[in-house]
Structure formats: C-alpha cells, structure tokens
Amino acid sequence: MSSQSASTSNTDWPGRYHHIDQVLNSPGPRTDPAFLAGDGVKDFLRHQAKILVIGAGGLGCEILANLALTGFKDIHVIDMDTIDISNLNRQFLFRTKDVGKPKATVAAEFIMKRVPGVKVTPYFGKIQDKDDNYYMQFNLVICGLDSVEARRWMNATLVNLVDPENPESLKPLIDGGTEGFKGQARVILPTITSCYECSLDMLNKPTAFPICTIANTPRLPEHCIEWASVLEWPRVQGDKKMDTDDPEHIGWLFSVAAARAKEFNIEGVTWSLTQGVVKNIIPAIASTNAIISAACCNEAFKIATSSAAYLNNYFMLIGTEGVYSYTFEHEKRDDCPVCGGEALELTFSADLTVEGLIEMLVEKQDIQIKKPSLSSPKSQIYLQAPPQLEEATRPNLAKRVSELVPNGGEVTVTASTLPFSLSLRITYT
Amino acid sequence: MIKIWSMKKNEDAAAKKKPKTSAAQIRVQKDLTELDLPSTMKTNFPDPADLLNFSLTITPDEGMYRGGAFTFSFAINTNYPHDPPKVKCTQTIYHPNVDLEGNVCLNILREDWKPVLNLNSVMVGLQYLFLEPNADDPLNKDAALEMSKNRDQFLNNVKASMRGGHIKGTQYDNVLAR
Amino acid sequence: MAESLNIENATVTIATDAQPDNKTRRYDRQLRLWAATGQSALENSRILVISGSATSTSILKNLVLPGIGHFTILDNEKVSPEDAGNNFFLEGQSSIGKSRAEEAVRLLAELNDSVESKADTSNLEDILEKNSSYLTSFTIVIAHNLDPKLLDRLSTLLWSDVSHPTLVVVRSAGFLAEFFIQFHEHPIIESHSETAPSLRLDKAFPALLDYSLSLDFETMDPTDHTHVPYVIILVRALEDWKKSHEGKPPQTYLEKKAFKEGVLAMKIKFDEENFDEAESQAYRCWTETTVPSEIASLFQYPALSSLSPSSPPFFHLLAALQKFTLEPPYTLPLTSTLPDMKANTTSYIHLQKLYKARAEEEKERFKSFLTVPVDDSIVDTFVKNAHGLKVLRGRKWGALDADPTALANAISTSSKQVAIHLSLSALTALIMKQPGVAPTIEALTQEAQSLLPPGSEFPEEFSDAVGEVARAPTADLPNTAALLGGLVAQEVIKMITKQYVPIESYCVVDLVETWTGII
User: Which residue of B has its CA nearest to A416?
Assistant: First the structure.
C-alpha cells in the first residue's frame, strides 16, 4: 500500500475522483449491505484490481477509456488486429496516421497518455496464445469482440478455470456486442450463471444461400457475389487463399460477380455490396458501441466495488425505433457443453484399467450411463464407435488409467444416455 | 470485489472443475460415437487421433448409383457446431447435385445448418442424394438436364462415368466398388 | 433482406466499378445504415452543446466521429480538478485552469478533420438576452444539467417557432439519468420499418394477372414447374378460386384450408418447394391490401388541410398520397421491392420487371396529384417507403411537470421511469433554490411532492430513486456519461438524418439495475 501511494501521488490530484467517490463514499438504497464504503473499496479499485479487456476495436476503445476514467489502473488488453481506415468512424483512439499499426498497442499508449497514472499493458496477438496462468491473474474480464469463435473460446476458458478449491479462480466475464443500432451486454459468472455457450442458439447466423441457387438460378446481386467467391475463386485461383482485405481480390470478385449479374439481368452488384457480402460486414457506429461499452464497464465497476447491484444477467438494446431495451435473466442450460452437465470426483487405485473404469461408470446407479466413450484433453482413451476408432482405441482398455491420465487429470465422458457430457477428475490412491 | 464465491456455496452441482477439452471437440466425440450408420456408409480416419478430419465412403445398395463407392472429405473447425462441417466429394463424379470441383448441394450443409443437427444428419443427407438425385436444383447442369430430358441416356451416363468414362469431354473417376 | 436493401441505397452514389475513395472507406460501416443521403444530412448539420461536461463531450464524440458539419461548445467555465478527473476530452492536470470549452473542443476536433468546431466562452444568459438568433442558427441544441432558469428560457425560445432548432435536454446524477427531445413535429420517410410492403396478391395488377393466367401449369416443363414463383402460383390459384366462389376470396377457416390444399394439389412432385412456399404465404390472398391504419391516420394531420406552396414537401407528398389512395385500387402505390423466393432466374427477373413497370406507372399517377414541384429523388424515396411513413409530434420541455394530472397518469403506466424523472426534477429545483447545499432525501422528497397533485402517492420505486440521487447529486460518472453519450447521439443522428425513429418524449436510464425506459 505504501509504495503504491508513493507512485500514484504524482498522478492523483485533489478532486480527481470527486465524481466517482460520491458513489464509493456511501451506499445507495439498493446497495448490498456487504459494500464497504470508503477507503477500502477505493484502494481495491485503484491499487489492486487487475482487469483484462479482450478486443481493442469498436467496443475495446470505449471500454479502455471508461475503465481508465472510473479508476481501474492496471488494465491489460489483447487484440490481434491492425488498424484499418474503416475503423476510424468509431474507434476513437486511432487516427489516420495509425492505419496499419496494432490496435492493442496504439490504444494502450493513447489511454496512458490521456489518463495519467493508468497502466495499460497491450498484447498484439491471439487470446489463444495465453494460458490459464495468464488468465488467472485478473479479477475481471471484459470482452468486446465480433467473433463468435473467440468468445466461445474465452467463455470456455474462464468456465474451465473455476477451481472448487480456489475462490479467486472465478473470474466474472462481461460480454458486449453490437450490430448497427442494436446491441447487448451481459454478465457471466462462470459456472454460476448462464454462459456464452448456453445462449449460442440465440445468435443470428449470417445469411447463407443454397449453393445450387448460386450455381444455377441466381436472382439477387448477393447470389452473383457468392458465385464469384464460393465457386469461381477456388475454381480459377486454385489454392491461392482469398484475402478479403486485399483490394485486388475484392476487385476480382466484384468484376466476376458484375459480369455474371449482367449475364442474368440482375441489378445491384456494387463494390460496396461485394465487400459487404464476402467480408460479412456488420454495420457499426460509435454511438451504439458507446452505449454497450458503457453498460459493460458499469457492470465491471459495480462488481469490482459492490457499490450497486450488478446486472442479472442480460441487457438487450434496440435503437432503430425509439430506445427499446429489455433486461432479463438468461437461464443456464443443463445440457450446455461448457457449463452444464455433471462433474464427478473419482478416486481409485492406480492399477485400475480403462476397462475397469468403464465398468465402474456403467455400474454407477446415480448416473445411468450406457456405452461411455472416454477422452482426455490430449487424446482419445476409448471410443465405442465408429468401428475404426473403436479398434484404434481398444488396446487402451487393458492399460491402466494412470498410464494415460495424470493424477488430478481430467476425463470427458460422452454417451447417448447423457444430456451432453460428464466430466471426471481423477485421483489415484 | 463482490462476494461471488459465497453465492457458489448454494450451488451444489456446478462447483466442479471441468476438463479443458473444447466444446467442439466433445461435441464431435459425441456425434461420432453415437453415429447410427447403415452398412452402406463407412467413415475412415487417416489419423485416428484427429477426429476433426476424416472421410466418409458411401456405397449405395440400390438406385442408379448402386455399385459405386463415393468418398467425401469432412473438415470440422473449432467453431463447430456453430459452423457446419465442410464437406466435399473427393472424386470427379457425374451427379446433378455435385459439381466437378466436388461441391455438394445439400441444404443442411449451408443455408439450413443448425447447431442441433449433427454429423449423422449430414451423412444421411448425403446418402439420400445418391438414392434420389434432384434435377431441379442442380450443380452439374448437364447431368441434371440429361436426367430430366432423357432418363435412359442419363442412366447410361451414370454407369459409364462410374467406370471412369468420358461424358461431353469430361473424364470422370472410376468409382466402382472393389 | 432489409439490410441488403440498405447496402444498395448506401452505394448508389458510389462509383460502382472501382474501389471507393478514402471518405467512403472511412464511413463504410455507417453508410450501410443511413446511406449517402443520411451522411449528407449529417454533414450539413450544426450542433450546439451547452457545457463541456463529461456527458457533453461523450455525446459530441459520437457525433464528431460519424461526421457532423459543425459543433460549438458553449461554456464559460474553467477546467476544475474535478472536471479533469472524469472527462476523457481534457488532458488531466495540464488542462486545469484552462477554458473548458477550448480544451474540450481541441481534443474532440482531433477525432475528425472534416468537422468544423468552435469553442464559445461567452455566457448563455448574455446570449439569451442579446443574441438569441445565434442560438436559433443551429440544427440541434443539446444541454446537459443546465441551470433550470436558463433551461426554461432556452426551451421557450426554441419552442417559439416551428423552424427553430430541436432541443435535447439531458440530466444525470450518479447512476440515474434521463433525456428529453423538444420538437414540434418530425416527419420520417425512411423509418427503415421492418414490415415489408404488400405484394398486392389480392388485387393483382393486370400485367401480373395476365401473366399468371397465361401459364399452363399442366403441360409446362417439369423443371420450370418447380421454379414458378409463389407470387404467380397464388395469383393464379386465387383467380381460379374466385371463379367458383362468386368472385370472393377464401373467407372461412374451412375455405382457407381448402384453398391451401388446392395449392399443394398443384404439385407434380412431392418436393416442389415453390408450392410449399405458396402454401405458407397463402394468407396474402385473403388479407385485403388497404391503406395501413397508421398511414391513414397521417391524412388527418392538420397540416394537410392548411397546405400552402410553402409547406414542407413532406406534407405535399402526404396530400398527394391521400388523393392516390382515394382511387381504385385504394392502396398505397406499389413498390418494386420483391422478396427473394424459390424461382429460376428468368421467372424471377420477369416477375421483378412486371412489378417495376407497374410501380413506375403508379409513381407517375402519384406525381400527377402533386401540386408543387418536388425533387424526383425525394418522390422516389417517398413512394418506396410509403408503408413506413411516420410523423412524430413532440412536446415542450417541462410540459409534463407543469401538468400534475399527466404526471399522475404517467405514474400509473410507467411508475419506475417516473420515479427517476421526479427525483431528477426535484434535484434540479433544489439546486436552484439552495445552491451549494447537499440535498437531503427529505428535501428532495418534499420538492417532488410539490410536482404532484395534492394527496397523490409516489410511485413505489421513488424511495430507491431519490436515495440514489441524494447519494450522488453532482456525480457525472464516466460510465453514465458514456452511456448517455451513446443514447443521445443516436437520437440526434436519427433526428438529423430523418431516418429511423427517435423517441417522442423522455428516455430514462437506471444503471443500478441496468435498464432504460420511456415515459
């Protein structure tokens, strides 16, 4: 504490936190009684809390600025992208001269320059590059991503991080997303509330057109563009990878699509539409990003300080007609592949074979499992089907489980009788 | 920080650490081990440790493609089942719904894919294409035209193509089941 | 589908054969929402923001980025240490003591070179007294936590003439906030309504009817049969039905069922998806296409009865529309927008041409009802969007608080929203009466009570709201400011572009439970 005060006294001036301190000095009518108003909570927020921001794009820029102003001083940010000119209509930490530079680095530098005393540590790369130890250091994670895949990964990683023996392992995940005038913000308490995977079927999928329509009965300009990108590109360009950020590639697709449209008397193929279809461009504006990011950061602030109740657990906004929003509790799914399903702690002899373990599982009255297939995070242990894989894994039946799974290791069990899967954590006697 | 952990005490089932196997990986394991395929379909894993890349061979026992063995490659990405599996025919075959590049016109591989569908549904769908080819929404237009205009000629072409013959300047792969 | 249409609109003025220029690339993600017309409206707008608070600069940030024409910050304060702590558009300690307007303008202007900006350090009171035409020269005026006496004068000035700028009033304290838009009327052509216009299958135009009758479903090539668009199938099936039912469409449940079965019976193969599509769209045959009630109600608008050549073009267009709908077929003009449907290219493109030709004819007829010249591109947009037209009517700032009965009614319909509104109104009133004194819950409650009719009850959420206000009466929290910045900018963009639909009155925000609501 003492060394912290010394370093921050240079940057904290009297009155700096006049606004924030009003809600940290006293509770409101709906504040949880556990809230400790005053210096304790300020110290935690300003000197102890460590927060991770995933994404330094439309949402990320806003999130970083808000966190810095609310008093978080140890912020990390991960982003694998570089700055493009089309980012400048909303990603307000970037300027024309920054085009081509890594978003994470430029954003971090800007925040540190603008908000004194805040440390922002950038990582220009993928979230998958980092391991559990890395994620374990944070108190909170905020995601401002546009990729379903990255969010699924981050969500699963944080759910898996939860260790029943260690309260610190539970990292609240706050996730935001926008599309045009619409957006959503949600709070995920891994293993406690509904997770990202629980709501996967709520997502709008990008429109896909039947491949035979594209090939033979095009009617819309989009059909001509998909013909160019899905069928003609691989046919004509072979193994050359399509880069949708390369204007030459877009130019080629556009001219091929335009020629086809002309042949079929279809109107409306433009450069912009071509780019929109092949890159699956989602409209994005500063104002919606500001709303959703502010909602996310407000939840982070409330969770970090307990100064007010936090969102339970989903906020949805539609701004096309008036300001319509809906706050509700998204329900956890029992058959969620990430946070649902049973987990068992099993303790048995280091001499037990895989076959013995399977018998043990089948005989367990409380789980009613039939024909279980087993795998460890690294490899398959025994699969009941298809025949080739059964044969390939059959030799493992005679092996001791301890040869394949380390002490404290994990096994995933699937079976048609299970809602999704069963997780085992194994301890040897 | 808000006391989240204290809430956890009230939750009995959830407080167990889960394995690091990805949701996609578990889902593929579940799909594969619960496949319910007829004897006319067989999967093959070039690397049995890699469940995400494999092939499926269909040997129809009825219909006009009887006697052939048709192979499709399956490539599943880590965003499965949000993304559908990528399926291509690895041979050059004469079929109204498969083009010469191996693209397959099957709705559940694209516009009608949903995460509730699984690998079994895709495989059954593929087999159906050989029992009931559809000339109305073709990928190989010549084959489709022949099928609807001159069914006998079409049947001859199917037989010839399966033996590795030429039709209208295209050499097809010999796909006869050995 | 709606999105792809927007994309099309957005790119009409863009060269279609080459990569777009830098400006188009910069604004690409927003042009897909409001197109070149919306962008040009933004670029011609002039915004005045009163105060350089954190909330004010957050709002401006979201307007400068998309490229408004000009903004002015009017603020005669110097940057205080407190300001420097919560405003991203001040540079920490180095800004303290400098003009708040100048510092904020300098840092906001960096966001977009094409936006003109100005810091005005004069006093609002002086301007109201000596130079009110300065205030009315803007497109929109935004005021955050403005002194209620000045706000009153400002709102009265801007309300005094229909041509004066829209006023946006923003108030916030801690986790609670609200904003209000003051305007007389706001006509919208491009509401981007998600309801599709009618295809008018029940009133098929002659070329469409002739075409459907010309087809011989029984002898047609089987592949063509599978690709007849459902529009054609239904027009034909309806015509055939009417012949045997005294010219009437299916009416009873049984008749509708029989009609659908008849459509499916037209199949020659079980898997003809176009007939399945026709069955699922069969309701279009017995849903009579009329003028939608929301559009018909616009014809009652007073401005229509007192139309003069100087009236805004929108009302001339509306008057022409009314005349159009008084003649057969008593519908809105046809739009050429055809949804995608199971069909081959030739039949779909042919159908599209029939709709386009007819839409063109009806547009000409529509134009003949216009009594003043209106730009062709506006007529096009108007006709194309006729099914989604809207006219919003606003109120003067303060009208709700001045009407205890209305306030009491609002409590019964939106009690938690009114709870916040009352608390913020009480706060503003109290700060004016006792500047510099921390407001107590008791004083705030008393102040709020005076707004309500004697003896009326507070909304049940009032104690929560007033407690929050008393906790943080002068807190302009960064997250609240940022969220308001987004919401207010969004509504301002909708007002300026006249696209999408802005709110008509109060929008209330509670960031404790994280919800927004409308009064």
Answer: B34
Structure tokens, C99: 């003009």
My answer on whether A188 and A244 are in the same domain is: no
For residue B47, is it within any domain? yes
Chain C residue with CA closest to B136: the answer is C223
Q: Of the given ranges (A137-151, A194-208, C110-124, C380-394), which has the lowest mean pLDDT?
A: A194-208
Compute CA C71 distance to the chain's CA centroid, rounded to the nearest angstrom: 22
Which residue in the set A69, A90, A276 is minimally distant from C32, CB to CB? A276
Check whether residue A9 and residue A124 sit in a common domain. yes
**Cβ-based burial of C269 (10 A; exposed 0-12, middle 13-18, buried ≥19):** exposed
Please write the tens of the pLDDT for every residue from A366-390. Answer: 777 889 999 998 889 999 999 999 9
For residue A335, which residues of chain B lie inside 8 Å, CB to CB? none
List C-alpha distances in Å: A161 to A136, A169, A298.
8, 6, 24
Long-range contacts of B144-151 (CB under 8 A, 24+ apart): B144/B96, B147/B96, B148/C222, B148/C223
Mean pLDDT by 10 residues, chain C (519 residues): 37 56 94 96 98 98 98 98 97 96 98 98 96 96 96 97 97 98 96 93 96 94 93 97 95 96 94 95 95 95 88 95 96 94 95 97 97 95 96 95 91 95 95 88 95 88 96 97 98 98 96 96
Among candidates C11, C174, C489 on the partner chain, residue whose Cβ is nearest the Cβ of A273:
C11
Whether the CB-CB separation of A215 and B139 falls below 8 Å is answered with: yes
Q: Does A283 touch chain C (CB under 8 A)?
A: yes
Q: How far is A194 from chain C (nearest CA, A)?
A: 18
Cα B14 from Cα A152, distance rounded (Å): 19
Query: Which chain B residues contact residue A375 at CB under 8 A?
Result: 21, 25, 29
Tokens read off for B133: 């080819």
Check pLDDT > 60 for residue B13: no
C-chain residues near B135 (CB < 8 A): 223
- By three-state DSSP, how is residue A301 classified? helix
- Fold entry, domain C33-184+476-518: Rossmann fold (3.40.50)
Give me the catalytic one of A212, A224, A296, A339.
A212
**CATH code (residue B74):** 3.10.110.10
CB A192 within 8 A of CB A330: no
pTM given for the model? 0.91
One domain for residues A66 and A150: yes
Has residue A363 got a pLDDT over 80? yes
Closest CA of chain A from C435, distance in Å: 18
Amino acid at B54: F
Query: Is the per-residue pLDDT at A220 higher than 80?
Result: yes
H/E stretch holding C56: helix C54-64
Asked if the C-beta of B131 comes within 8 angstroms of chain C's C-beta atoms, the answer is: no
Residue with tokens 């499965």: B80
Q: Both A61 and A181 in a single domain? A: yes
> How many distinct structural domains can be found in chain B?
1
Share of chain B above pLDDT 90, in %: 74
Contact flag C504-A322 (C-beta cutoff 8 Å): yes
Residues 6+ apart with CB under 8 A from A130: A78, A123
Q: Which residue of C has its CA nearest to A272?
A: C11
- Cβ–Cβ below 8 Å for A22 and C227: no
Residue C14's pLDDT is what? 42
Encoding tokens for residue C273?
Answer: 């998806």
**CA B5, chain centre distance (Å):** 45
